[in-house]
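quick one before i forget lol
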Amino acid sequence: MGEAALELRGVSRRFGNIEAVRELTLDVTSGSSLALVGPDGAGKTTTIRLIAGLLNADSGEIRVFGTAPRSAEAKARMGYLSQRFSLYGDLSIDENIDFFAEIHGLENFEKRRDRLLAMTGLTPFRARPAGKLSGGMKQKLALACALVHEPELLLLDEPTTGVDPISRREFWAILSELLAGGMSLVVATPYLDEAERFARVGLMSSGSFLAYGSPGELKASFKYSVLEVSCSEVRAAAAALRGLDGVDGIQTFGDRLSILAREAAGTRAAVQARLRAAAVEVEELRDATPTLENVFMQLIGGGAPATAIAPSAKQRSQES
């Protein structure tokens, strides 16, 4: 077991009558990774800001490499990339990195800056003002600024939201390289497919964990067989299947329908018959491996039969 990069014990934070984070407990060992996953308002950003020392907890304890988040040691060993681009738009790429290096009291950092520019693919644009960069390039610059002091723990708050698909892939390639080099990562994301990359995942709702564990552990805890239907009328299909014997949940993700069945073989014929009777044209009906999307949506539904609507991965890649 490596050194504890991060420990939270019963951490809570309120904003007036809203309990943004509620008795949160987690651990991240040195060189490991954690994804905080959930919709807007789940408590992800508040948790990241508490760890970064930008907010104080109302109760509980936070330790970054054994010290308080606002200690000089924690600040020196931790990097933070905020949800919104917060660099200086009128300064060039080089000038923004230089500014953050000076904040951390760094000297002779030019070679480090050049390595970061090469790693992020920003070298050809180093003289360009940050305000004239694309969304993906802004995030890469923000990452370079967060890395200039060589932190051991990196906090990222929704780093790929609003970023085009190609930049998103490039960004994750950089993060994978950092993780392989021994850096610890804590990332807040609304995307469950991104969470598959992490050693541990915390599925969040209303400020607390619905579930916490490795992606494999979370999917292994899923109690249902999954039948996946591809069809053009997913809402009509969901309505037709509601109440069908043997079906305990219906989840719609873009252009596909996940049916949570107590037993797949016996339910498949009943599903086909019900959709045929409803005049829903089925493109494909197949057995599917449970995903983190299935797990999360069922937890949100509280185990009761429900229809959940969420965007597909294909749709998310087209959002930007």
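fyi The first strand starts at residue 4 and ends at 15.
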